[in-house]
Amino acid sequence: MLPADVRALAWAPVKDGFSARFSCGSRTYRYWLPRRDALSGRPRDLAAMRRAAEKLAGEKDFRNFCKMDIVHVSNFVRLVYGVQVTEEGPLLRVEVHGQAFLWHMVRCFVAVLARVGDGREEPSVVDALLDVERCPRRPQYLLADERPLVLHDCAFDTLASVAVSSSSAGVEHTSRSKRQHP
User: FRET label pair with 51: which of 13, 110, 140, 163, CA 20 to 30 Å apart?
Assistant: First the structure.
């Protein structure tokens, strides 16, 4: 019943009350950036971006890396397993893996990392933004564009998936796996 360019790789039975959003154990986002700064044309400083990205890992208060939603959110602490910046041909891939995210958090990460890569900020800007005593509200910086942002993966700890096969039976029950995150 799916179009030719959409296919199911696996499925899992779920219990009543399951929510794809709230039952998710971890998520991985990918964001694609040009390797070169659009304004200067210079290559971005990958080493500086990586130093800044390392500072984002851990359980921290990320209120300065999100669009505030004080009506619905009172706790700004989130667990980020890791942020990696890698080269992919003419592009840079920023991959963010975490338990849960605040509104526009990944786009804020990328905006700050791009500023570091372009030489407009030092990697220590991340330390300053994470120090909510010293910097109690998000400074004015533009969010990274939403178009290069991709939700790459979601892990559901409580689900055992069943791989879909192209066999005549349609479902292969021998390939059950339980996703894990670090």
Answer: 140
